Amino acid sequence: MSRKTDPFEVELTPELILRAYQAGIFPMAEDASSTDLFWVSPQLRGVIPLDAAHISRSLRKTLRTHPYSVRVDTDFAGVIEGCATAGTERDTTWINPEIRKLYGQLFERGYVHTVEVWDGPALVGGLYGVSIGAAFFGESMFHRKTDCSKIAMAHLIERLRAGGYRLLDTQFVTDHLRTFGGIEIPREDYELRLADALAHAADFGAIDRR
């Protein structure tokens, strides 16, 4: 069960979104055509514990042999368009034009990051999320070719570990996320983990300097 408020009565800004994440809540729209956004705070919060994240044997083989290239932070517009397209990871989408605009502004300020899977010139999978302190808040993912969202998630986990992150928040848990070790924890437990992560610094780009 989630705690959801009425639609916003004040202008939503990138700064307000950042404060909301630090308070354990995040915005969503009912669907892509909705003009209203809501604050959401799940009673049970999805996380992937970074010290216990699981990469299956079959995915490890895929990671060794796939023909794709993985990039970060090169095409936010393409990633959010993929995530907002019904039929990849979902039947409907909650990403409306306001979400695209606000998270685009956060991307420009360095708070939002993307992991992208490319097949030559074609973007075939990826994800995006918000980074504050040593917490990474995963927002959405997509794939256009088999396993490409899994490749993106595996890369994200490796990158967060290398960068000293302490929390990977997935908001909710799906069967897809459970294959990586995703679990649900009570809101109170989540708030403790969040406070700890926000009290530390992390580096999303550390893996690139190895």
Alpha-beta classification: alpha+beta
Q: What is the CA-atom radius of gyration, in angstroms? A: 16 Å
SSE sequence, one letter per element: EHEEEHEHHEEEHEHEH
Averaged pLDDT, please?
91
Please name the CATH architecture. Answer: 3-Layer(aba) Sandwich
Helix content: 25-40%
CATH third-tier fold name: Aminopeptidase
What is the number of strand segments? Answer: 10
Please tally the helical runs, counting DSSP H or I stretches of 4 or more residues. 7
Highest-level CATH class: Alpha Beta
Q: Which band does the percent of strand residues land in?
A: 25-35%
Give the strand line-up of the largest sheet. Answer: 5-6-7-8-9-4-10
Indicate the overall shape: globular
Subcellular location: Cytoplasm
InterPro entries: Acyl_CoA_acyltransferase, Leu/Phe-tRNA_Trfase, Leu/Phe-tRNA_Trfase_C, Leu/Phe-tRNA_Trfase_N
Family: Belongs to the L/F-transferase family.
Organism: Devosia nanyangense
List its salient traits:
210 residues; alpha+beta; Aminopeptidase; 7-stranded mixed sheet; 10 strands; globular; disordered N terminus
What report would you give on this structure?
By secondary structure, the protein is α+β, with helices and mostly antiparallel strands. It has one domain: Leucyl/phenylalanyl-tRNA-protein transferase, C-terminal domain (Aminopeptidase). It contains 7 helices and 10 strands. It has helices spanning 14-22, 57-65, 76-83, 97-108, 148-162, 175-178, 187-198, and strands at 2-4, 26-29, 37-42, 44-47, 69-72, 112-119, 122-132, 135-143, 167-171, 183-186. Strand 8, helix 5 and strand 9 (167-171) form a beta-alpha-beta unit. It is globular, with a radius of gyration of 16 Å.
